[in-house]
Prior knowledge:
The complex is a heterodimer of chains A (about 450) and B (about 90). By secondary structure, chain A is α/β, with parallel strands linked by helices. Chain A is built from 15 helices and 13 strands. In chain A, helix 14 (about 380-395) links the parallel strand 9 and strand 10 (about 400-405). The radius of gyration of chain A is 21 Å and the shape is globular. With about 90 residues, chain B is α+β, with helices and mostly antiparallel strands. Chain B starts with a strand and ends with a helix. Chains A and B meet through helix 1, helix 3 and helix 9 of A and strand 2, strand 3, helix 2, strand 4 and helix 3 of B.
Amino acid sequence: MLNMFEVNETNKMIEQEMLDVRTITMGISLLDCCDSDLKSVNEKIYNKITTVAKNLVSVGKEIERDFAIPIVNKRISVTPIAMIGASSCKTPEDFVTIAQTLDRAAKEVGVNFIGGYSALVSKGMTTADKNLICSIPKALACTDRVCSSVNVGSTKTGINMDAVALMGKIVLQTAEETKDNDSLGCAKLVIFCNAPDDNPFMAGAFHGVTEADAIINVGVSGPGVVKRAIETARGKDFEVLCETIKKTAFKITRVGQLVAQEASKRLNIPFGIIDLSLAPTPAIGDSVAEILEEIGLERVGAPGTTAALALLNDQVKKGGVMASSYVGGLSGAFIPVSEDQGMIDAVAMGALNLEKLEAMTCVCSVGLDMIAIPGDTPASTISGVIADESAIGMINQKTTAVRIIPVIGKSVGEMVEFGGLLGYAPVMPVNKYSCEKFISRGGRIPAPIHSFKN
Amino acid sequence: MNKTIITVVGKDTVGIIAKICTYLANNQVNILDISQTIVQGYFNMMMIVDINEAAKSFGELADELEQIGDEIGVKVKCQREEIFTKMHRI
């Protein structure tokens, strides 16, 4: 039978170390909402979401109460809208109406974000893809809860550099459209390489076409728990350190697995995957940077940071896979700047720069995340950053992403406040030298040699 | 069997167990196991109970126990057993 020590350990994780389930994300396929008439597409989408996800929030709250574990977010991801709107949307403005419908549906069912205003263009763009991409700045400016993502490359297809060039401009336009809010629109826009179909985390979540009609994916969190656990391994060798992280990741993931199974049972929707990511928040003690510092770095960004992050990411995966029957999504450690107090401090004191963050993305679970840069950064430079990050993903067969915010009207060193879980960040300097000629070449970068595995 | 874990933490005083147990008995909740210690004046108790025959729903029991806790100055928490067994048993 359970003993008091075990019960207290779990409750200490929840109460003091901020263990929580970061999100229950319901993936909903909208493929059956396609229609040639725009009005009826919008109607079908609204009806489907508000029917399938009707009980999502209330069931989330029930589970929260039964286990006394906070479930921070309840969210929805849908099939990439570029596909759903392809036969009815002739202009970017037509697509914006779908974004508004998604926003309305999200508010009706009470979820805080809805992802899937997306296009998958890793090899080429259809007219619909292009229209959707061009509609992103407007769509994100006139909605509150819609998140958008664009997949511009993969290991199998190479990198669509036309899309990369376009996305540089779209990021800037989105910043411009939402400049009254510190360019907040860009915080809801992710550019991916190797985007997974079953990611429960925003802003990059969408419901892949390979998925079932509806599915429950769960993202767990718990950087604070890992940090507290490895405090006991101070001064010990790497074997002890890695074992400690692994055991802790196992425990955290088991909670996610339990919540996912319960949610799936109560909503009568199949369980998809657990995403075992360590997702920080701006709250003190909920930071991935603090884990890296506990491993032995004076500050994140110091030499050794990439190695420390690599071992952390790997041990989290190793501990997590045994705890869950299905693992997917991004699974690893997130290193968003504005959402992690330790990262914010490191940037503010000059310990961490964009180049080091890029190196870290080679071994973390996603990529350059929630980074504020000066608003006067040229579109081609933003495209260059996207291309670099995509190349890392393509060559290393991993998911990489860019969520970068050129803050209109602000320059290096100024603070930007996004609010809530999105946090705040100092504006970081970007390399001043141009890559204009490189980006304007057009076409695509061929798939790497190791993609030919057949 | 529908097992629930009740934890009680707070400053020690006379009658904490009596209060909680009376409430449980009145609501047909069967106690399977109790462990309790005092550390530096702080009361710490864990109970494993069966709520299968209980007159009220889990939610009501949890809310009312929390209320009783507030009255006597301790924190009472109800959780379904699975969160602990999942985490600590393979």
